[in-house]
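Retro notes, item 3 of 5
We never archived the inputs for the D-ribose complex last cycle. Fixing that now. Sequence and ligand:
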Amino acid sequence: MLAIGSDHGGFELKEHIKKHLEENGIEYKDYGTYSEESVDYPDCAEPVCLAVLNGEAERGILICGTGIGISVSANKFDGIRAALCSDVYSATMAKEHNDANIICLGGRVTGRELAFMIVDSWYNADFLGGRHARRIEKIHALEK
Ligand code: RB5
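Structure as it came back at the time:
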């Protein structure tokens, strides 16, 4: 299951991505926000990060206006590797090299169709392990 969340700046893109996931048979749970009313992005990042960390969700998608605030927030959680992506190459690498368990998008930056390709690339990629696993361990060491 994928956890998905956004602030008001990412709300519209979140709704489009939900439809895209449904069309592709990918199960998700929406952790809000549920309208374009202004909210604070750290509050929107938290439930998605906790869902990933407690195993309720395998991975997550977070969206704010730029993707910056929500990715910075998500990366405050130990064990979260949130990658802000606006291109397909980075999205693929985010999984293959960084084992990103959350992908972040800017709803005011990235168009809908590109966003779908970014999500698909990340979702379908596999972590390559090896030297990349060593680097992930070093990220965990930095968290301590
Ligand atoms: C909200 O206006 C906006 O600041 C937020 O969505 C995000 O872009 C912050 O990084």
